[in-house]
Amino acid sequence: MTETTMQKTREHLVSAASSEVIIEFEQVNKWYGDFHVLKDINLKVHEGERIVICGPSGSGKSTLIRCINHLEVHQKGNIVVDGITLNKNLKNIDHIRTEVGMVFQGFNLFPHLTILDNLTLGPTWVRKMSRTDAQATARKYLERVKIPEQADKFPDQLSGGQQQRVAIARSLCMNPKIMLFDEPTSALDPEMIKEVLDVMIELADTGMTMIVVTHEMAFAKTVADRIIFMDEGDIVEENEPEEFFNNPQHERTKEFLSQIL
Amino acid sequence: MAIVKAVKTSALPAPLSETSVVGWMKKNLFNSVFNSLLTFVTLYIIFMVVKAVWVWGIADAVWVADNRRECFSINPDGACWAGIFAWVDNIFYGRYPREELWRINLGIFSLFIWLLPLWLPRVKAKISIGLTAVFLYPFLAGYLFAGGDKGIFMQIMFTAAIVCLAANTIHSIIGVLIGRSLPEFLPFLLGQKNVNEKNRRNIFLGVLALGFILVYVWQMNWNLEGVSWTKWGGLFLTFVVAGIGIASALPGGIILALGRRSEMPIARALSISIIELFRSVPLITVLFMATTMFPLFMPEGFVLNKLTQVIIAVCLFSACYMAETVRGGLQTIPRGQFEGGHTIGLGYWQTMGLIIMPQALKNMIPNIVGNFISLLKDTTLVSIIGLFDVLNMLRAIGKDRTWLGLHIEPLVFGAMMFFLICFAMSKYSRHLEVKLSTGHKH
């Protein structure tokens, strides 16, 4: 990690901490049947903050971020996103989903549409943008994820890394306030991980609020303002990256870090 | 010890067995003594069957004769196709009045014209062409086929259908010639060039309204003689019943399938009971129920003719079978596709209509067309409850005094007709699959 990035991160952290809270978890609990998957989660995310969530599989990290756009429904507690409390009100949920972009492990591109149509679908149908405007936006973001030449292909004709970059561009086309990443590089060949991470780092530089579930610790060190370590449905430890990696406090964190570093 | 390859291995030509006909035969037909023997036996059986069919059906067949007796005196061992030729109008149109046959032909021709643009690559707005065909064509065809007095509603729908057909046709011609749509072309025709989208639409709607009024006035004096449904028959009747069944199967099936997967308990329970009821009862029972029991539940004086009852029964039956096919298709779509749709803010219906259904239906094309084919064949069951569909007409030939006892030839002819239609449908479905596939082309 370079000095400048560190510097940038620290400056950014100061500004992020002083800005508005955009996501708030209050005593959130969730069960899958009998299984208690999220236990009394309390979490505040500020606008512009970059958070990395890590932890062993089955610890509830994916469930946690999927609660933010209501892909998973929590049973107890409160989640407030962008000033709106998540409940059964479908209008609220639809609104929040337009403000929260999400990138999945399995890309979830629409295989029957071209790349360009994948990108314009949301803007034209949800944002009611005209087709020409939507296409211009789509091309702009394809440019940003460095695959403008693939616009007319179908998803299956692209490599995994390219598909994931399209998925990022698709979310960005909706002009979201928050971006969620659910293990975006876990399904990729090692050769392709870097191209996706590069795009994510660039996105972080634009000041986007990002919550990333990942096992890429190098990425976490470079980009994150805060690292959250989860185990068995609990947030076990939460710290700035430097402290987190160099001086882990909790027994479980130490064990986890010794396994993966 | 390290191994480093200095020269790239070059590709060699494939062995003969993979590329030449002789090689293929050696590998697949004559790879052992026993298999060679089997090959020869099979070839012999095929030869005998083909030869018998050829001699009976073509070489020894009688093509021109006035009655069956004459057929026998010319060649007793061959098929008597003369009988089929004499009855061909009956087979296709049933007992429809001979001087009114043009109405059926015109109806079928206009359906062809209506749907043709769907296959032309440069034509735009195919979805609305398809939708108007589903919703308006039945009125056009209904009046052409049945005739008689038309009420105000029928006149309006009939006029709308004609205007729509005309607009579609002009739109398609313009599309093929210059690649524009009709709404884009109209302002140009009126000498105005820079027209925004809203005005363009207004001009288009205005022209449609004008056309509607003109056609309405024009058609008021039309009087087609009423032809009772009892005179409908033959392949025409089969097409009417199967056509309506097929056209309604997909929309009905989609609604029932979505209902069955819905989280709303009442919609789900209702869909499940309808689907399971109709799927667990044979079509013939449904038909009998529709014609004998259904009238008992209706209020006094409310009489539907038998044909309408049969069509309703066929529609319900086919929708229920289609519902299970569609549900199967929906289950092939991974959960991630729903989530992908939701995360870009699409609601339930948008996700279904834009993302899930197009993929599910594409995956299901072979099954859907299979359903259509079996429905087409199943409609011959209406002959049992006394409608003179193509099967009944074919059987009637053998009861005609001039062609008494001519049973085999009509059925062979019917089998050939059905084979041609069904084979064309299945070929077309294969073509659709290839055309719509967007994945890797291997």
Write down how many β-strands of chain A occur, each being a DSSP E stretch of 2 or more residues. Answer: 10
Instruction: Tell me the number of helical segments of chain B per DSSP (H or I, 4 or more residues long).
Output: 19
Note the quaternary state here: heterodimer
Radius of gyration of chain A: 18 Å
Largest interface: A-B, 28 and 22 residues
Mean pLDDT of chain B: 88
Strand content of chain A: 15-25%
- Residue-averaged pLDDT of chain A, rounded? 89
The assigned structural class of chain B equals mainly alpha
Number of helices of chain A: 10
What level of helicity do the residues of chain B show? over 70%
H and E order of chain B: HHHHHHHHHHHHHHHHHHH
Uncertain stretches of chain B: none
What is the beta-strand fraction of chain B? Answer: under 5%
Largest sheet of chain B: none
Biggest beta sheet attributes of chain A = 6 strands, mixed
Give the fraction of residues assigned to helices of chain A. Answer: 40-55%
CA-CA gap between termini of chain A: 16 Å
Unreliably modeled segments of chain A: none
The H/E string of chain A reads: HEEEHEEHEHHHEHEHEEHH
- What order do the strands of the largest sheet of chain A run in, or round the barrel if closed? 6-7-8-3-9-10
What does this structure look like?
Chain A has helices at 3-18, 61-68, 90-99, 115-125, 131-144, 160-173, 190-205, 217-223, 241-246, 251-260, and strands spanning 21-32, 35-46, 50-54, 76-81, 84-85, 100-103, 178-182, 209-213, 226-231, 234-239. Chain A is α/β, with parallel strands linked by helices. The radius of gyration of chain A is 18 Å and the shape is globular. Helices cover 43% and strands 24% of the residues of chain A. The longest helix of chain A has 16 residues, at 3-18. Chain B is mainly α and 442 residues long. The radius of gyration of chain B is 28 Å and the shape is globular. Chain B has a domain at 98-226. Chain B has 19 helices and no strands.
